[in-house]
Design a protein that fits this description.
By secondary structure, the protein is α/β, with parallel strands linked by helices. The chain has 15 helices and eight strands. About 40% of the residues are buried.
Amino acid sequence: MSKNIWEKLPKGFTVLAPMEGVTDVMFRQVIARAGRPDLFYTEFTNVSSYASEKGRFNALERLEVAPSDAPIIAQIWGKNPEHFSELSAALEGLGFDGLDLNMGCPDRNVNRAGGGAAMIRTPELAVECIRRAQAATKLPVSVKTRLGYTYVEEFREWLPILLKENLAALTIHLRTRKEMSKVPAHYELIPEICALCREISPQTKIVINGDIKDLAQVKNLMMRFPEVDGYMIGRGVFENPYCFTEHVPTREELMSLLMLHLELFDAQDMKHCAMMAEKMREEPEFALKMDGKVRGLPYEPLKHFYKIYLRDFPGASELRARLMETHSTSEAREVLRAGA
């Protein structure tokens, strides 16, 4: 039996897009409870961070997986081929079903570092990174990218370069880096893109990303573009954590998901502190860097998720405003109990 997870997915499969600061191990478990996609991705992990003794601790935390994640793809980024090779070789042992090279992230800092969408401007380097990753692992290697860096027409030269590398899958965000998310996704190009892909690399699964909000829209797109293999949802999950189902959640169900997220955060915080304490015991230099203090996970980033659960019901905005004034999960629970 093939080990290529992409070959086992149903036609029209769904994927949760990798999003920085969002699709961590905690949030993926929340989505799994609400109704999981066919495939999960991690946040992006910098290959050079993993290759560094100083950065490996954080890189491994970002690559943590939960039992409910499977099947899951590790998404990695960078510009150093040797570092791509090193991390790719380790991923199979970390419980992943595949790895994906990010060549589409529009973040300015990522692009300045030569990663993400900046790889579109360095195609020879992009190819070398793909080949080094493929040579280092038995896992299927895929790429997520955009139509181009500046101009939409760039896809006619850029995508063939990628497709000639025998990728297991290619996810295309139907915008350029310059367009960000300021214009509608270019669905009109799907037939031409699919024809191009089938001509060059018919075994490569084609995944479409951009402006896809829920399962109902996926089904509509499947009827319009049957040649597409899969559909990736990103920002749609902010509007409805049940977006991979046809279920309309109640207020109680959304509140239950939020309480689950708080529980997962607390559990992850305890695990994080234990790992940090152990690393400090084993590595005096790390302990010195941390001033001998074990630091827990920051609470503030968790507040970004509250708008996902507290919306579209009477009193949601007021409850959310009170939560934004909290400083811990304990305080958040008190607010939620008072507002229940």
